[in-house]
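Below is how a single chain appears once it has passed through the pipeline. First comes the sequence as given, then the structure the pipeline wrote out for it. We keep one example in the README because the format questions we get most often are answered faster by looking than by reading.
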Amino acid sequence: MKLSTPRRVLARATAVLVLALGMATGSTGLLSGPAAHALPVTEGSFAFSGDEGDYISGGQSYAYSTASSDRLNISTNSANSAVSLSVDGGNGDWWSLDLAAPSGKTLAPGTYTGATRYPFNGHNEPGLDLSGNGRGCNTLTGTFTIDAVEFGPQGYVKKLDASFEQHCEGSTPAARGEVHIDNPAPPAELDLGLAVAVEGTASTLNGKATFNGTVSCNKPVQTTVSGDVTQVKNQTIIRGSFTTSVACVPGAPVAWTGTAVPTGTVPFQRGLVEVEGHATATDPDYAQPVTVNETVAVRLRRG
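Resulting structure:
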């Protein structure tokens, strides 16, 4: 039985290969932090058209919007110096648009001239890249104008009104377009809290130590609680660790319990231990992990 590769997947793979080859040749451009997880656009549109002879547009016009069930996703990087838009049209089209300020600058309203291909633009050059449907520029020049832009946390783009003009391979024909994004106010970031009780138990039956405490959160998340335990008894260091998972819900602290198994043959015993506790969960709105740490001296009693 033969397996065929869908043309769209093959086209995406080809575009990735072209990008990888471009990166292998080196670049004078400097990235300002990694792009955050792209988030869906609630309300927005993207349209462009091209002159006859323009490679990217093929001389055609294209228009997409969330109102027409096209999917748009957008993100910025950690420095808010570049925005990346991806478009999945309901008709199967796919496009991406990158707009970037010169290195070290935040993307802000204004006109950016002398743009070259992002992310290979030079240190003092703005970056631009419109590609998709299996077509992309190896080199390009262009300009773009940011009329309005507003950022939130974790790569959230609340608003973007921009227009652009791009010339592939130094050619005269150009692709011209605009993007309008109007998202709601960004959701609050995940706020986790961790408390470790100052009393625990050391089992006289199996040498394990049991700890407890609470976690708190401002949105529902599955939270992993872990801890590294150290005790010194009679000049012997006893170590162990524990991990557990609890469903945290806003409103009140949620209890957790974890049991640490000693790594050697010496059991945990009554007395003080140091617990380095950690609580980790993924922010459901930004798809980013959040971790809080708490180091506590815990007194073990026999149990």
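The CA atoms of residues 14 and 115 lie 24 Å apart.

See the next section for the split statistics.
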